[in-house]
Design the sequence.
């Protein structure tokens, strides 16, 4: 049974000339009939069952189908339009070479496959055995024979097929393709690998070609040289010498056609250079010696070239389109990509040279240094400084690293060497040292860093000096062996002891620190423990206090003793906190002598020296400091401590400038909110503590504030954390929860404002006389209404004068203190309940809260949607303040979302207050609750608190009696009005 067969036919195209086409033929008795013309779309036809090489032939031939030629070479709308406008010259130059290249690929497959080739007439569909063309399995080899005489040069061309000569002259040879040439002779298809038919045609009719000597210079320099290069040549009358050339591989730094930086690999054989992707195999150099032409023929060593390419790939290069690049550089901008290449050479040049590859950069405008470059670091510790000896080795040149400071800070990658070459600084140096260099102080060829940069130095420099690393480890270790002061009248919780030892460790190494615990965790107590531990020895106030504390010398000291007198420590506070500090000093560290440098009665400038020598602690306010900075700055204090240090967050403020003028051996700041609005808040406080540690404000804004706050970059965040971590200690309530009782209560004493104090004293005198007169006439019981009205009026004045008089501009010390603490809690993202007996007091707070754009809830007797108000506070994280009147919110509420409770106007009914506290401190509360009672000092509130302490039954009398004053004596009432 006859089967179908896949064949290739050589036929004539109306416009294209000789072409190959694929067909399926079917054998009949004495001929073959064409069943179908095979197209690419037929390849998936299961009936055809084409072999892989047959499919490949179809795909190659399809490339020069009419439709594909139109797509590739024209914008014509149709095939007919394409051919009607086809210019012969353009066809010969563009289209014909493409088709002949495809046809050569077809023949290359036919030479090795069983597919038969037939000669097909255009008009006929039948094929016969005599139409078959035998495709020769080997390429024909042309050999040129040149003979130079005194008058001419003659050359002949012979063609060998499998070492047998193929006659050319008068042999009825048909040209199938021109370049590479394919010919048809006696039903044989003979293909040449790279011969142009133009060189073959002359010998179809004559045996030799003659060239006169008059044009031989041009002839030998062109045709003869190229023929020697591309073909086998036998010469007579001139010489062909095959040399063994000296081989050099060149890696050239250049730009490709897209102006992208790249490496170009070249191979130099003596004076001839080949690109790595050059298809030329042989180089021929011509010269004339004593009238005789000499051609030097150099053969490329492709095995050697391949070995070089493999070594480059192994070194990390990749090749694309004849160009080499480094993996990953395609992601970089062009300039950085170029620098990336140069730095790759800096690292890999020794390996390249060992592999026999030389570096070339002849096409660049500048000459770049491509040798090895490395940074050597040696660190030494002297007194309060770290000396870093850092040099960069650029080949033969040693450059102090400090000379690159401007380059590192300003992202300048190019550095000119003494010989004029340009070194490209590695990007790693910018990433690693950019935040370090601003802190470097040049001293000759070394860099000096203050010791408070030790954490950044340890992370960035990573020195090999073991003693230096040991110092880092010692600095980071807790001073666990330090004992608490013996005469401390308080038991510190575990985390407070840790805080005390942390402060002590900073002191021991002369570092300033920021204690930034959450509000209510006892920053004051930890600070007092430190001051008590460091209290000057008993005896004469002129006693010597050495630099060694607790028997331990400063890690960075030279061992010398600093025999200077220890002056008092100054603590700068908001006005409202002066009395709280004084109270806690007297309560917990009574052996510390304390002086309040506040108010009109404070000591004058000439007396300050005595105060500093006699007292251990001097309390002053930020306002007083501004007024007295001129003479206070003339003295040196032992410690300068800023409480609520966010008061100095504005570096342009008078307060900040006044604080900087003060002199002290040691510094400390206390705040629950070191950062309220911006990182500039942090800079101000750290710069006060350890001047220059974060650079100047312009640098800090450029390298930290802008990239962190505007661009949220992680790297500057991490470096800033490294810088400040040793000097800031912050614990939240949640972190130390195991050390806290479920409920902690504290009384906050608030000093009246000046005008408030005057108004209160005036009204108190009037009320006292009125009450005294009524008691004398009617007795205590019948005077109850007058007494309660008078005491209530004084309570209102103690809270805020505006509770009695609308529109007054009078200030309130308690009001200021409440908001100081609220600012901290809002910054720390806590929730707080604020209880008051007076709705108007809550209204005043509400107005101030709205000015600060804080979200809040409010519950009074007038609130109708109680459930919704409570739900919003409990569930909405942004609502952090709940203003509640004591009567409306004392019972029936579950407000476990809050962990702070403010009782802002306590009265003598603790039961009502306890009910209010229970709104937050109850079953379901998972947080520790802090309760603050705000008491105005020297007011009715403080007197009632004292009276409660002396006579516990008083509260019970007021609660359980219809007449709460019936059991109170005249003397007790008058004591409230003293």
Sequence:
């Amino acid at each position: 049974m006859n089967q179908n067969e896949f064949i290739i036919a050589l036929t004539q195209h109306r416009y294209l000339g000789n072409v190959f086409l694929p067909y399926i033929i079917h054998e009949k008795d004495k001929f073959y009939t064409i069943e179908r013309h095979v197209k690419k779309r037929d390849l998936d036809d299961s009936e055809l069952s084409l072999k892989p090489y047959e499919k490949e032939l179809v795909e190659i031939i399809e490339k020069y189908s009419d439709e594909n030629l139109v797509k590739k070479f024209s914008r014509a709308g149709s095939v007919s339009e394409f051919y009607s406008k086809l210019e012969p010259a353009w066809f010969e130059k563009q289209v014909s070479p493409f088709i002949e290249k495809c046809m050569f690929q077809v023949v290359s497959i036919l030479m090795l496959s069983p597919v038969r080739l037939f000669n097909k007439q255009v008009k006929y569909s039948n094929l016969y055995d005599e139409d078959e063309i035998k495709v020769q399995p080997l390429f024909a080899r042309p050999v040129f024979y040149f003979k130079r005489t005194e008058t001419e040069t003659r050359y002949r061309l012979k063609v060998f097929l499998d070492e047998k000569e193929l006659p050319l002259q008068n042999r009825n040879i048909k040209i199938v393709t021109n370049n590479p040439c394919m010919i048809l002779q006696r039903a044989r298809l003979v293909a040449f690998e790279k011969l142009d038919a133009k060189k073959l045609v002359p010998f179809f009719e004559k045996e030799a070609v003659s060239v006169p000597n008059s044009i031989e210079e041009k002839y030998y320099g062109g045709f003869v040289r190229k023929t020697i290069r591309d073909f086998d040549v036998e010469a007579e009358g001139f010489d062909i010498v095959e040399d063994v050339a000296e081989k050099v591989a060149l890696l050239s730094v250049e730009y490709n056609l897209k102006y992208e930086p790249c490496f170009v690999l070249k191979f130099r054989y003596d004076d001839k250079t080949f690109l790595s992707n050059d298809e030329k195999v042989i180089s021929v150099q011509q010269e004339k010696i004593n009238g005789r032409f000499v051609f030097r023929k150099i053969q490329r060593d492709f095995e050697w070239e391949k070995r070089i390419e493999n070594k480059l790939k192994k070194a990390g290069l990749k090749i694309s389109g004849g160009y080499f690049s480094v993996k990953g550089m395609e992601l970089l901008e062009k300039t950085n990509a170029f620098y990336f290449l140069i730095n790759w050479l800096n690292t890999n040049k020794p390996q390249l040279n060992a592999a026999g590859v030389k570096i070339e950069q002849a096409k660049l405008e500048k000459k770049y240094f491509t040798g090895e470059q490395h940074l050597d670091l040696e660190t030494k510790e002297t007194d309060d400084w770290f000396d870093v000896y850092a040099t960069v080795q650029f080949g033969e040149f040693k450059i102090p690293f400090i000379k690159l400071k401007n380059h590192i800070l300003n992202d300048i990658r190019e550095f000119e060497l003494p010989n004029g070459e340009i070194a490209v600084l590695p990007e790693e140096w910018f990433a690693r040292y950019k935040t370090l260099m601003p802190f470097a102080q040049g001293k000759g060829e070394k860099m000096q860093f203050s010791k408070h940069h030790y954490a950044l130095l340890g992370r960035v420099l990573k020195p090999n000096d073991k003693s230096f690393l040991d110092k880092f480890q010692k600095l980071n270790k807790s001073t666990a062996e330090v004992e608490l002061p013996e005469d401390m009248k308080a038991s510190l919780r575990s985390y407070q002891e840790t805080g005390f030892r942390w402060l002590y460790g900073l002191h021991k190494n002369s570092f300033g620190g920021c204690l930034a615990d959450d509000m209510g965790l006892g920053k004051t107590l930890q600070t007092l423990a430190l001051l008590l531990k460091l209290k000057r020895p008993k005896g004469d106030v002129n006693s010597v206090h050495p630099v060694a504390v607790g028997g331990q010398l400063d890690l960075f000291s030279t061992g010398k003793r600093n025999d200077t007198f220890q002056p008092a420590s100054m603590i700068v506070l908001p006005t409202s906190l002066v009395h709280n500090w004084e109270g806690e000093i007297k309560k917990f560290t009574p052996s510390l002598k304390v002086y309040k440098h506040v108010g009109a009665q404070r000591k004058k400038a000439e007396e300050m020296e005595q105060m500093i020598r006699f007292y251990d602690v001097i309390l002053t306010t930020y306002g007083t400091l501004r007024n007295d900075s001129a003479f206070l700055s003339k003295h040196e204090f032992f410690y300068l401590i800023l409480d609520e240090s966010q008061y100095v967050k504005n570096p342009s403020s008078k307060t900040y400038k006044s604080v900087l003028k003060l002199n002290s051996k040691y510094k400390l700041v206390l705040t629950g909110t070191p950062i309220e609005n911006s990182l500039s808040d942090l800079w101000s406080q750290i710069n006060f503590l350890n001047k220059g540690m974060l650079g100047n404000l312009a640098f800090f804004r450029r390298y930290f504030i802008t990239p962190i706050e505007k661009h949220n970059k992680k790297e500057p965040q991490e470096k800033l954390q490294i810088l400040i971590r040793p000097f800031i200690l912050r614990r939240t309530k949640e972190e130390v929860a195991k050390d806290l009782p479920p409920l902690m209560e504290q009384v906050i004493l608030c000093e009246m404002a000046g005008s408030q104090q005057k108004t209160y004293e005036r009204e108190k005198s009037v009320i006292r006389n009125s009450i005294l007169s009524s008691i004398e006439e009617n007795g205590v019981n019948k005077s109850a209404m007058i007494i309660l009205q008078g005491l209530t009026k004084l309570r209102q004045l103690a809270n805020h004068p505006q509770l009695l008089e609308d529109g007054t501009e009078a200030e309130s010390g308690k009001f200021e203190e409440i908001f100081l603490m609220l600012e901290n809690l809002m910054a720390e993202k806590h929730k707080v309940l604020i209880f008051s007996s007076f709705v108007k007091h809550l209204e005043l707070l509400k107005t101030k809260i709205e000015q600060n754009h804080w979200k809040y809830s409010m519950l009074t007797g007038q609130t109708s949607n109680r459930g919704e108000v409570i739900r919003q506070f409990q569930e909405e994280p942004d609502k952090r303040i709940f203003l509640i009147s004591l009567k409306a919110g004392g019972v029936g509420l579950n407000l476990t979302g809050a962990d702070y409770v403010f009782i802002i106007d306590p009265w003598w009914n603790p039961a009502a207050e306890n009910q209010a506290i229970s709104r937050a401190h109850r079953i379901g509360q998972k947080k520790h609750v802090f309760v603050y009672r705000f008491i105005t000092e020297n007011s009715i509130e403080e007197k009632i608190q004292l009276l409660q302490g002396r006579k516990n039954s008083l509260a019970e009398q007021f609660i359980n009696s219809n007449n709460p004053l019936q059991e109170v004596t005249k003397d007790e009432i008058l004591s409230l009005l003293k």
Observations:
- The chain has six domains: 4-135, 141-237, 247-279+301-360, 372-423+445-453, 473-479+487-737, 743-976.
